Amino acid sequence: MEAVQDAGVVVTGAGGGIGAALARRFAAEGARVVVNDLDASRAEAVAAEIGATAVPGDASGIVDAAREALGGGIDIWCANAGVAFEDGGTDLDERTWATSWDVNVMAHVRAAQALLPDWLERGTGRFVSTVSAAGLLTMVGAPSYSVTKHGALAFAEWLSLTYRHRGVKVHAICPQGVRTAMLEATGAAGDLVLRPTAIEPDDVADALFKGIAEDRFLILPHPEVADYYRARADQPDRWLAGMNHIQRKWEANR
């Protein structure tokens, strides 16, 4: 793919799951890849596997180190690192809310702040945000995840509408269940809502590359999410009643 060949690509949270799948796919397409993860050993293992460079650490603060590792500019930034908690309800503590907000939203904001000056000067750049179908819809039992993923989607939309005429392309990936460690952490709610239609991380990478080729903002690895999103907008009370039915099933099985 011409848009990826020899591009300098950074994938955060790439020690496993969706991030590792994205890193592998970019490397296979001829990109020069930086693999980031908080867990240095996981980042280094994926980087060694695909001939990339590991830059471990907090995704919010690695832009300069990633540029140096790539020997120049960053062409594509994949804001993939994220956190999810089996939250429960409104009794969720503020530390968990703060962590969710910082990782799922503010890390994207900080990366964009560091990347945009160079991208706008060059007139090119690509920001890929791993959001979630929860950012378009919501997720039972996971208030902090749902709210912050809505925030991540809103920020990606804002980036796109603000800078697309200046050469910055933005993609928001919004899958439902993906067979990763994060899915395992969703507990009973994930078992009820996500696991039955869960896909592999490689399927998410395939969907992204198809979206890049078609120059689409919204990437839906589960195509049925478009119908759910449409129903949510067209008939919000009916949609909320349906989600409440799922909520009651979850409560009965906890």
UniProtKB/TrEMBL annotation:
MF annotations from Gene Ontology: oxidoreductase activity
Species for this entry: Streptomyces mangrovisoli
Name listed for the protein in its UniProt record: Dehydrogenase
Keyword terms: Oxidoreductase
Pfam family, one: adh_short
Family: Belongs to the short-chain dehydrogenases/reductases (SDR) family.
InterPro entries: NAD(P)-bd_dom_sf, Sc_DH/Rdtase_CS, SDR_fam
Domain of life, source organism: Bacteria
